[in-house]
Amino acid sequence: MSSNYLRTVNLKAIIPNGITLFNLLFGVAALVEDDINWAFYFILFAAIADFLDGFVARLLNVSSELGKQLDSLADLVSFGVVPSVFLFRLLQPEWGNLAFLTFGLSAAAAFRLARFNTDPSQAKGFKGLPMPANGLFWMSVMYVHQSQPLPSIALLILSVVFTFLMASRLPLIALKFDHYKLQGNLSRYSLILGVMGSIVFASFALKNFVYGFPIALILYIVISFIDYSIKKNEQIQSRN
Questions:
Q1: Which CATH code, of 1.20.85.10, 3.30.70.60, 1.20.120.1760, 3.30.70.100, is assigned to 3-176?
Q2: pLDDT along the chain (240 residues), means of 10
Q3: Could you tell me the CA-to-CA distances from 10 to 5, 36, 71, 88 in Å, in that order?
Q4: What is the pTM of this model?
């Protein structure tokens, strides 16, 4: 094997890992940012980087254990720690020590990522709420909270609910394609169209695209439930 070939392979591997590091950098930038508007956009950029690193790694055929671990570390910061910290800052003045419940999001994120890295059954689908969905939901909610304050008790309860959602084994769709034909990918394409539709709807009907992310999360869970039910039914029929 020539040294030129090795250099090419190593260079290709650097590309997705570099994108992953942008995820981490955006997460750290959000963590030290006081302005929730900027913090939201940093996490949005982190989520885009999180999607692109895996896509590019598969495209270049350079997926690796290093990239997998690096991706999890970046996700923990961007989509686990950052929402916990911002939610704690928001709720602590009113709820005092009870606001520490929000750090359950960070703990659940770490647990979920560790389980993901050691569970081969999640190669095609997720078990538990994925990190970007958690991060985008909470940062968009806190963004909206500035202009339309939400009851603090609702936010505190939701933080506990999301802690359990991440730690759960709830089956959810992963946007991982073996091929791009409609057959076998209907649920994935439905999810993509649903997310895009949510953002477009929020942009025009609600006058702010940020509202689209909580709507998209609800659609994500609904579409995943329908997909799981169909597959479960197909498995039962195949046994009969």
A1: 1.20.120.1760
A2: 50 87 97 95 96 87 87 96 97 96 97 91 86 96 94 96 95 84 89 95 94 95 92 80
A3: 9, 38, 18, 41
A4: 0.90
Where does CATH 1.20.120.1760 sit in the chain?
A: 3-176
End-to-end CA distance of the chain: 52
| Residue corresponding to tokens 């649920």 | 187
